Amino acid sequence: MSLIDLMSMAKPEKESMRKVLAKLGRSEFIDCFQCLKCTSGCTALKLLELKPHEIMKLVRLGFVNELAASEIIWTCATCLKCVQRCPQKGSPYHVIMALRNLAVEREAKVPEAYLKAVSQILENGLSQTIQKITTRKMETFDRTSLKLPKISAPKESFQTVFLKALEEKQE
Amino acid sequence: MKMAVFWGCRILTSQYAYEMSVRQVFPKLGVELVDLREATCCGGPVKSINAFAADYLAARALALANLTGLTDLLVPCNRCHFTISEAKHRMEINERLRLRIGELLKEDGLEYDPNINIWHVIDLLHDAVGLEKIKETVKKPFKGLELASHTGCQIIRYSDLGRVDDAENPRKLDELINVLGAETVDYSEKLDCCGAVLTYSHQDAALSLAGSKIKALQGLNVDALVVCCPACQMMFDSEQKDAGTAVGAKLDLPVLYYTQLLGLALDIEAEKLGLHLNQSLVDKLLTKLPA
Amino acid sequence: MPKIGVYVCHCGLNIADVVDVEKVVEYTRNLPDVAVAKHLTYVCSEPGQRMIQEDIREHGLDRIVIATCSPRMHEETFRKTIEQAGLNPYILEIVNLREHCSWPHSEEPEKATEKAKELVRMGIARVRLLEPLERRKVSAEKSVLVVGGGIAGIQASLDSADAGLQVYLVEKAPSIGGRMAQLDKTFPTLDCSACILTPKMVDVAKHPNIKLFTNTEVMNVKGFVGNYEVSVLKKPRYVDEDRCVGCELCTKVCPVKFPDKFNESLSHTRAISIYSPHAVPKIAIINPNHCLRLKLNKDVCGKCLETCEPKAINFEQQPETIQLKVGAIVIATGSEVFDASEMPEFGYGRFQNVISNIEFERISDASGPTGGKILCPKNGEPPKTIVFVQCVGSRDKRFHEYCCRVGCMVSLKQAILAREKLGKNVSIYICFNDLRAFGKGYEEFYRRARDLDINFVAGLPSEIRNAANGSLCFDVYDRGTNKLFEMHSDLVVLANGLVPSSDLGKISELFHASRSADGFLLEAHPKLRPLESATVGVFLAGTCQGPKDIPDTVAQASGAAAKTIDLLWSGEIELEPLKAVVNKDLCSGCRICESVCPYVAIEMKTEIVDEIERIRAEVVEAMCQGCGLCASACPVDAIKMQHYTGEQILAQVHAVFEETEKVGGS
Nearest Cβ partner of C345 from B168, B188, B219? Predict the structure, then answer.
């Protein structure tokens, strides 16, 4: 491929494209023809400037590395409107998820909260910690005071196997 | 009807009112809920980290359901419902994935069953229990109430996966509200996202999304917003005050779960339905109800 | 001793770039019975054909093998070539070294060359056993059935009738004119559609060689090319065609209203009315689903009866079945428009001011529901902003993957008309994905639109909403400025494309015309035979074969007419001899062949043999398409496929397993 982005001097990255395709479980990229429906209706566009059509085009041309290291891929709200409405049955959402997975593999910018969720799951099976609720009337409640059943945590084997799953390479 | 129930994370750790109201209303409609052996995450937040590990957790949820011997699994959270449904579909079309996940599950003493039906509160009530049955069981119908429904995103999209309701014109939650005697409004922002997922990375944007929707609804003079997902409830109810700050508006719209609303119509005490836990001004709504 | 001539074509570089043609010819020279073996750059060329003819004369060749591209390309040509040199045209074998060799194996030239040798060897084995065959002539009806009275059907009818053929034009609606009659103006000339169409419609009505059947549908088609037997059902108008003068007084007194189909339900018509503003024939019609008297089957109302002076109303009128004998059929049944309510996100069907291109066309037409004024359906006021949204239902894997071809030009035209009718102070935008203005004068038309201050947004909206103030609003991202625009509009016009008509399944079956993957009727070859279906004698014209504009429709219709004239002018049709033949001595009358034949080409004939009545199968030569199903199904091998006998095919199979000097490999 003879293409150079004169802003970043980046060239198409065949290996990274292949990795993204593997994560998508596809042998070819979906042919986005830049109708812009996804971006026109994107939940995260107005506030966070996410342009799904741009990501589709960049990935299609091979400019994956910059995206995987960017913050923009973490702005998707996963509302799935782009998947629903794309006339080429493309899916910017899935491409963004694949880029996120790639970012994690490369230890790039991953929002703290996601990593916290994973370590929380490893610890006791759930992605959140148990919270006490304070009502408007300033009373505090928890599961016990609300007479809700105790949460049974998974056994140790859960942690071992989940760790294995996390280490699985998707090729 | 007997079915297993997968609560996910949010309901068990903070959105207690959903669990309370679900546990209250379903027995009254002839549905017995059976808890799973243990509580684990569906894999939703893990999808961004490692799709395979996320599919593993989702398959594990179905494997836990398999342990109960039941073929139906109720998943009251929209996000869990989508995560588990998509994982199920991926394993159907990708044999290698299914086998690998099967191997890992085996190491944890579990077995995946592809024949488990995944339900959400909305289709369980609308399609399985049925509007007729609900109507018969209603003791205190709401009259003169105008409510807005928020079905959410992940149980209506994307339709190719087979979802709970129509992606462009979801009517089931509205019909479930109507059968309780209340009117529902049609509003332009109906399909807008609550923004919950953005709380992982962009809290302000998340609050703005939630705030704009509540603000628009307040302009329509509805009595309350009805939701059916703990993430949506978190944004519209628990975070309503901060959402208001984010969009520079004073927000005072009552927001509650459909199961809470249903519980009221079935004449169950407000406290048993966790209505005291709602952060939004549900008292405004409660005063409008028949005694 | 046969004298076989073998000619290996380079096909330019198509074959020669992969297959070593010299080696193939060298190999062939050494095969038994091969008198001549040559290779040329283009065998199909004039010098190439002349060379074959000279060789036939000089060397006394009596069997020819040509190793070249697919027989679908030039088999007919080469048959004529050898026929002119005195040979029977069927002692010819085409070996496909292109589609079956050089093209699929372009990466393996050595193996391809070996395969080429084998294929030629197989061809020689077959040509040894080919038998001379004669084409038979049958008489043909010098008449054409044209199905559909839109501009395609009208053009095909006029051209065929002018050439002296009898034309039967059958139209489903009460008037001819089709889609073009609904248009206001046509691109890129902005000709008034009715002005250029109605003279042709009148020509059709007046033409001595055209018999026009309106309110009529084709029910059944039997027979074969040159001799079709068609039965059509003329549905009752409940109005005497010879008496009605088209005064429309009946319409004024009729109390029943229902949505007017011609005006795309934007207005109402009456239970008795004339179908369209420039109807041909201009005769009233009563809709039996709405007329009180006909619907209730009671002696009620009858206002039209009282009012009609020529006494043309006849509630007792019956449907009439008419039998027609025709030599060829032209299918010109048109297409429908995509129903945009299948895409609920754009609000079509929910919001009154979201309309389709065809609805805008009716609004713009002076003979339409608003008298030609551009008014919003919701409040009847002229819009201050109009936005067109392209590719609704087209280029969309969820609905129709193809491009509708006319959507861009239609919206450009309507935008220009809106500008001309509403003046400078109206904002007009077109939201597009790609703007396709491909034809003669089309790019200039696009320029004209831009010069008229029509703005283009390079992007499509995801959804359309109803704003609080009643206008329509949506967000759209523009590629040119890289900005997200919020747009408010009074009127939104959706460019929903042409789709196959809902009765195309029935039409496909009636006329044995297959459909392509996109749902339209399938042409025999997309490049070289775009006017014919795969069934001999059935031609295609207009949008039933694929979406297209008026210039292309008229061209295709005239072309289809030319084909029918070509086919029928001599009053005779030559039948290809590649048919099945039953050996009556072997036939046991089991009827299996009759049951598998898809062309109803096998008849069971009763015969007395040795004083015993026996049933034997007989092939109806004119109907037989030579598919071979009967021959393979026959349990006693009593059926022979001419030119494809079992011996001929087995000889090829045996030839494959003979030795060849191989270069490595199996």
Answer: B168
Candidate from B168, B188, B219 with C-beta closest to C344: B168
Same domain, C602 and C556: no
Residues C49, C189, single domain; the answer is no
The tens digit of pLDDT for each residue in C249-283 reads: 999 999 999 999 999 999 999 999 999 999 999 99
Question: Can you say how many angstroms the Cα of residue B197 is from the centroid of all Cα atoms in its chain?
Answer: 14
Q: Tell whether C652 is covered by a domain.
A: no
Task: Kindly give, in sequence order, each residue whose CB lies less than 8 Å from that of residue C311, ignoring residues fewer than 6 positions away.
Answer: C243
Task: Give the CA distances from residue C580 to residues A46, C219, C639, in Å, rounded to whole numbers and listed in that order.
Answer: 70, 29, 7
**B2-119 is classed CATH 3.10.20.30:** no
pLDDT of residue C470: 83
Question: Is beta strand C328-331 parallel, antiparallel or unpaired with respect to C143-147?
Answer: parallel
Structure tokens at B122: 């909305």
Q: Do A165 and B56 touch (CB under 8 A)?
A: yes
Mean pLDDT per segment of 10 residues, for chain A of length 171 residues? 84 91 84 94 96 95 94 97 94 96 93 96 95 94 95 94 88 57
DSSP C34: E
Q: What does the pLDDT look like over C501-536, one tens digit per residue?
A: 999 999 999 998 999 999 999 998 888 889 999 888
Q: Is C460 on the interface with A (CB under 8 A)?
A: yes
What rounded mean pLDDT belongs to chain C? Answer: 94
Residue range C58-78, pLDDT digits in tens: 999 999 999 999 998 899 999
The C-alpha of B276 sits at a distance from chain A's nearest C-alpha, in angstroms, of: 7
Fold of B131-286: Rossmann fold (3.40.50)
Inside any domain, residue C312? no
Same domain, C21 and C76: yes
Amino acid at position C216, single letter: T
Domain count, chain C: 5
Residues of each domain in chain B carrying CATH 1.20.1050.140? 2-119
Confidence (pTM): 0.88
Q: Could you tell me the residue range of the domain that residue C66 belongs to?
A: 4-134
